[in-house]
Amino acid sequence: MSHSSINEPQRKTPVYGDYEVVVVGGGPAGIAAALAAARAGRSTICIERYGFMGGAGTAAGLSTFCGLHAVVNGQHEQVVHGLADDILDRLQAMDGLNKPHLTIQNQITAQAYDISAFKIAADDLMAAANVHVLFHAFATGAAMADENRIEAVFVETKSGRFAIRGQIFIDGSGDGDLAAWAGVPYEVGDGAGNMLYPSTMFRINGVDPVKAGRAWEILPGLMEEAEKQGRRFPRKKPIVRPQRNPIEWRANLTQIKNPSGTAVSGIDARELSYGEVEGRRQCWDTFTFIKEHTPGFENSYIVEIAPQIGIRETRRILGEYVLTEQDILGCRDFPDTIGVQGWPVEAHIKGDVKFVFAPPSSRGFNEIPYRIIVPKKVDNLFVAGRCASMSHDGQSSARVSGPCFVMGQAAGTAADLVLAAKVTPRSLDVATLQRKLREAGANLGPSGT
Ligand SMILES: Cc1cc2nc3c(=O)[nH]c(=O)nc-3n(C[C@H](O)[C@H](O)[C@H](O)COP(=O)(O)OP(=O)(O)OC[C@H]3O[C@@H](n4cnc5c(N)ncnc54)[C@H](O)[C@@H]3O)c2cc1C
Question: Per-residue pLDDT averaged across 169-191, rounded?
Answer without folding.
Answer: 97
